[in-house]
Amino acid sequence: MKIDIIGDIHGCYLDFKLLTEQLGYDWTTEAIPVHPYGRRLAFVGDLTDRGPESLKIIEIVWKLAVEKGNAYYVPGNHCNKLYRFFLGNKVQISHGLETTVAEFEALSKPEQDLIRKKFIELYEKAPLYRQLDKGKLVIAHAGIRQDYIGKSGSKVKTFVLYGDITGEKHPDGSPVRLDWAMHYTGKTCIVYGHTPVQEVRIINNTYNIDTGAVFGGKLTALRYPEKEIVSVPSSMPFVAEKFREL
């Protein structure tokens, strides 16, 4: 199994295209990235929000993961919120969702219906987290505790989407999260994102590959099983305060 796991894209299509080209993927045949030697892409979630081309990323990942069946996707918390928006649930149009909604509202009604259908299908067919390579690899948006691997339920879902949150808030309103990776002792390699870091954080067989593309950092991939890190610089303005230490 040879896959390239992509960090949080957040609608940064140009960065995504550049990164996949650097990884050796070809876009000329079907306007989607295809690797000449059969490597597959995997996504840690948060495809949308804040960046300029969220709907384009949805189209590409839907085609790869659903139509072609040759990519792996797990949802992030932004994906979950967009899913609930598309279902017609009452959600707060903020924290980045407003950019995706603005793109969506600019479409014609038939175009809206199609992108809504594709994203709902992508989301509903995705597992909460992926166990790959005979259990040697787990891809989970915000990570996963060792004792949660192989399990489901509301506690697991909250952890995978939001991290090890305490229920408390920082002064800026963001949730206080405990450093689960610092205490991880499992043999399974866990690849995740969610919390922007300026450089890939590697600790205890875990890899945080959200290097803050939408905040002017980098878009990063982890090549597996090689454990090689490949990044491209972001095309977005740098926002220093969005990068926090855990």
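[next item in queue]
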Amino acid sequence: MAAQKLTKGRLAQILIMMAVLIAAFTYRTFTYNDSKTIICQPNSQCDVSFDGQTVTFIYQESAKVLKFTKTEDLTIEARNIEGTLTELAKNSSTESLAHPIDLQVTSRTGNSVSVVIE
């Protein structure tokens, strides 16, 4: 490639692209969330502990019922295989969740754990 003279337009393009890349990396750095994934088996109790709190899940495969207990400080979102997203209440059970189940447990501080019941 032949050397070309650096024009004002080309310099502006380079500076704008650098600003966009720096902004993207900065945004991703500040919004990064180190989530962990825990895999649980159906028909057995699964205890998940993080941020000093424990959530217990039991998925009864034959009845397709998920039972769990949690503290008020935690939020649980369940995404079944069809992609339906629902927020689950305290000490609740849900019926007709498709298998496998992907659960996202989030604390008030923003820390989260992903629980997959296979």
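[queue empty]
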